[in-house]
Specification:
Layout lengths: L1 H14 L8 H4 L33 H4 L30 H17 L9 E4 L7 E19 L6 E17 L6 E8 L2 E2 L3 E4 L5 E7 L10 H5 L5 E5 L18 H9 L1 H4 L4 E4 L25 H6 L9 E5 L4 E5 L23 H12 L4 E6 L3 H5 L1 H10 L4 E4 L5 E6 L2 E5 L14 E5 L3 E8 L4 E8 L4 E7 L2 H7 L2
Helix pairs in contact: 1-4
Amino acid sequence: MKNNLKELKAVVVGAAYSPAIISPSIAASPACGSWRASTPTSGDSRARRPAAAPLSCAVTENARRPKTQKHRIQDSPHLHTSIKHFPIIPFSKTSANTTKCAFLLVLLTCLGTPAAEIERIWLTHQTNAPHQLVVNWETDEPGDSVVEFGVTDALGERITREESVKLHHVEIPLAQKNVTYHYRVRSGAAASARHTLKGYPTDELRVAVVADTGFAKQAWAAAVQRENPHLLLSAGDHVPALHRGQPVARENIAAFSQLVGRSPELFGATPWLAALGNHDREIRPRGPKPPPEPVYDIEATAFRAFFALPGDEWHWHFDVPDFGVRFVALDLSHLSDMGTTWQTCHPYARDGVQFGWYRELMAASRQPFVITLYNERNSSVRGLEGGEWGRMIAQGSLAITGFGYFGERAEVNGFSFYNTSVSGTGTPYADPKSAVLKSEDNFVLLTFRREPPQLSVELKSLNGQVLDRKEVSSRRTAQESKP
């Protein structure tokens, strides 16, 4: 009998994951109540398993009546139900426990196959303002894209895209402020757990800026989460490369997927806008000298496929009107390699697309605060095109790069140029105008207050220490104070 019960225990566990072995008599049993055995879809890898022989089971009236509260099986947030609580049943030679085993077998087989859970989710904006949000996720099998969302746990709203894809982007409205949004995603038989995100505020806006996440030597996401940011910006080099020693296709997004998979709590709860670095498009090893074929995908195909960003995506701007701030991302990195097969970024020349776009944007910007992001050395960028790039950037409020593995604030005629890196213990290439230089893993925290417009900039270590702090005046105030 003991051996038979061990076999039954193994069958019970296996039955929960193999709906093909459910007997029709069990599925129709009164013990199943409203539950139904599920059948895997053709896209489910479980459907390809060989079917086992059907089982049968006698169920007594006592087995059909749960004795205590903890025997109840609760609904799951997924498409299929799953067990939340069930008792651990001791196995013995008694017929009573044999009946309990049979009852557990019935319940487990009636529940059917648990749906695959979607865990890799990230949030972005592809509009130039925060009234819309893109929910992004991946699935192993192609399927439709569904987001259920609302300002309560009941959700209540739903947006569906019917195309069959593995990489999903669904845009939802963020119509309310100062609320917590709840959401869940679905694709075919797969579903996520419920997640939450903050609606944009009306009193204080917190924005975290990170860089070099592809080279972090310690966990950094938790340090950012402790600041409870409403928005996450990144200044390049999110991944070490797109390849792993051998050339890969320009469309290969695996490195970005792994980045999200390491910090799902942050990326599933905080909108994220990313600026390009050279490593974010490295499709083959760089080598000691420029090879015959391009090392970098200048068009950043994988990056633009993975992130749903505003505009052309390789450069963009994003405004938060309630706080009078405009964020601008440029594509500037490894400028010394321009014109070779090591070239990483779009041209910066005066007659190029990027220069013209930035010049027009800065001339039209009326926001109290304008912040520019890129991934090149600050002093190099300031000198481009006879210093014209530096003059355009200085029309804003401050600039942030992720070029070097250190923390820094440089001051040029009262304008601040920051370098930040969550891998901040590398060689510090000090700016000639450096005012603060730190060899610590760090990030930048921007805190905006609405009335009157105020901006506080903190360079923070991952343990929460403030390495540097500066108050930045509104551009309007600065202009009014000029003689």
